[in-house]
UniProtKB/TrEMBL annotation:
Organism: Gelidibacter salicanalis
GO molecular-function term, one example from the UniProt record: alpha-L-fucosidase activity
Keyword Signal (UniProt): yes
Transmembrane region(s): none
Primary enzyme class: hydrolase
Protein name: alpha-L-fucosidase
Length: 537
């Protein structure tokens, strides 16, 4: 009897420990994907803030691809970098002697206060925060064991990602990073060129420098080839394979040494194919083993990976999507610059809020980039916009956070196109606007876009309440056909309509064909106005 009791105890110990043992076993990407569910923290967040910020912010002019364009006398179609070459020569010196490696050393980020930034971003309504781990310039903003050109070894001499990670945890913000590094070899090719005319004609740029050239210089011991890559003629298949393996080592360290809730790859599909897939697998396995579930997000412009969040650059979905997605944009340009002619803002408080409402109504999140100055602080004009965005989100938070789409995302759609059809706009321009709307990437509406009509709305739901965002409100009546009792959406009979932020009575009438609602003159602000509608759901 005693023997059988011991056997039973051993069996129970083995049985109970089996899940723990199996949990320790790393799963393949396919196995992880089979049970993955998008975490609630992400699908309910609806608004995140990103700082697309690194060493390329150090030069005050030259566009967002400064590191590339400073080596190009003629940027051809890449007009955003047209000032880089002239600015670099004037400010730093000729790129045959003083190149981007030297710009890295100039960047100090001397006023960076990650606590202040993260706490502020939380106060304006962001539910998660994303920092740039590296850009196409192949410089790591973290303490990289496998890449000497990083922010701990030179420049700020700080582990920027670690500091942002710690501040995010301190203020209970989900934290992520973006990686843009897998195209650096082709992106850097201009660094191996030379001037085509003038006193430096034919003199190679510093991409050709070697570790020996650094003797007695500030960068002694660093190899420029580790930053720029080898000269194109020396890039053998074995060398390129080594670059990919190094990328995997660096990014494996990134997802294991730092506690990330969110990983974002810039580009299409997994970086370097199976190498990117292996890093993603390691990332998800680490979260699973640490937390018992994969409460993390992988985002990018993936074409056939249902386990990832679809990323749309400077644009949004044209319909309600069944899966989570995000639209990314920036107020002006990706890296902060002061190029003459490029100082105009693409977005204001108004357009950010309109964009947020539109994306949320289609099951998407808005990720807004804040263009930090080179010292790590927020530009005054951008802070004023963020302050107002934050005030609006705080007022209307119930319609934003944890919201879900309704049966349709809006009513009186394409109102600006209808206005233009009756105006003097050319047919070609009108067709271009229609085409832009139907696309995703780069289809965003900005300050230069025609205004919405006063009756165009977006819908979200939360619990048993329907929220209606009147995008460009004006005093007077508006008609909403989708809320007619016999419309295709089959809404319930409305029992009450309230304007968020006001106690005044809202006049409305619902019949079989439409809802007629009177938008009052006195509203909480001059921005998108949100109404709480009861009885529809």
């Amino acid at each position: 009897m005693e023997f059988h009791k011991h056997i039973l105890i051993l069996f129970l110990i083995g049985f109970l420990s089996f899940p723990a043992l199996s949990q320790d076993k790393d799963l393949s990407w396919e196995e992880l994907s089979a049970t993955y569910e998008f975490p609630a923290w992400y699908t309910e967040a609806r608004f995140g803030i990103w700082v697309h910020w690194g060493a390329q912010t150090e030069p005050m002019q030259g566009g967002g691809w400064y590191a590339r364009h400073m080596y190009m006398e003629d940027v051809k179609h890449e007009k955003w970098g047209r000032n880089a070459y002239a600015f670099h020569n004037k400010t730093y010196g000729h790129p045959s002697e003083i190149g981007y490696k030297d710009v890295l050393n100039e960047w100090k980020a001397d006023k960076l206060d990650t606590d202040a930034l993260v706490s502020y971003f939380k106060s304006v309504g962001a539910k998660y925060f994303v920092a740039l781990a590296n850009h196409h310039d192949h410089f790591d903003n973290f303490n990289s064991t496998y890449h000497p050109w990083n922010s701990v070894n030179l420049g700020p001499k700080r582990d920027i990602i670690r500091e942002f990670e710690q501040s995010s945890k301190k203020y209970n913000m989900r934290f992520g990073v973006s990686s843009h590094d897998d195209r650096f070899l082709g992106w850097w090719e201009p660094a191996f060129g030379a001037d085509t005319s003038g006193p430096y004609k034919g003199v190679p740029y510093d991409g050709h420098m070697t570790i020996e050239d650094g003797k007695s210089k500030w960068w002694e011991g660093l190899d420029p080839a580790d930053l720029y890559g080898l000269p194109p003629a020396q890039r053998t298949p074995e060398y390129i394979e080594g670059v990919k393996k190094n990328w995997k080592l660096r990014h494996t360290e990134l997802v294991t040494k730092y506690d990330l809730d969110y990983l974002w790859f810039d580009g299409y599909n997994f970086p370097y194919g199976d190498y990117g897939k292996a890093v993603s697998t390691t990332y998800f396995n680490k979260k699973r083993e640490s937390n018992g579930k994969i409460d993390a997000v992988l985002a990018g412009k993936f074409s056939s990976e249902p386990t990832t969040v679809k990323d749309i650059e400077r644009g949004g979905a044209s319909e309600i999507l069944a899966f989570p997605w995000q639209g990314i944009t920036t107020l002006r340009t990706w890296f902060y610059k002061e190029d003459e002619g490029d100082l105009d803002y693409r977005h204001s408080t108004r357009t950010v809020i309109e964009t947020l409402a539109d994306y949320n109504s289609k099951n998407g999140n808005l990720v807004l980039n804040v263009e930090l100055l080179r010292d790590g602080t927020i530009p005054t004009t951008q802070k004023l916009i963020l302050d107002d965005v934050g005030a609006w989100i705080r007022l209307n938070s119930e319609a934003v956070y944890a919201s879900k789409p309704w049966k349709v995302y809006g009513d009186n759609l394409d109102s600006y196109l209808k206005v233009l059809e009756n105006s003097a706009i050319g047919e070609a321009d009108l067709e271009a606007l229609k085409k832009q709307k139907s696309e995703e990437h780069f289809n965003e509406r900005t300050l230069s876009s025609p205004a919405y009509g006063k009756d165009e709305v977006r819908y979200t739901t939360n619990g048993d309440v329907l929220y209606m965002f009147v995008l460009n409100p004006a005093e007077g009546q508006i008609e909403l056909p989708t809320l007619g009792l016999k419309s295709q959406q089959k809404p319930g009979k409305i029992t009450a309509i309230e304007m968020i932020g006001s106690n005044q009575k809202i006049e409305f009438k619902q019949d079989n064909t439409k809802l007629v609602l009177t938008v009052p003159a006195n509203r909480p602000n001059n921005l998108t106005t949100v109404f709480r509608i009861k009885g529809v759901l």
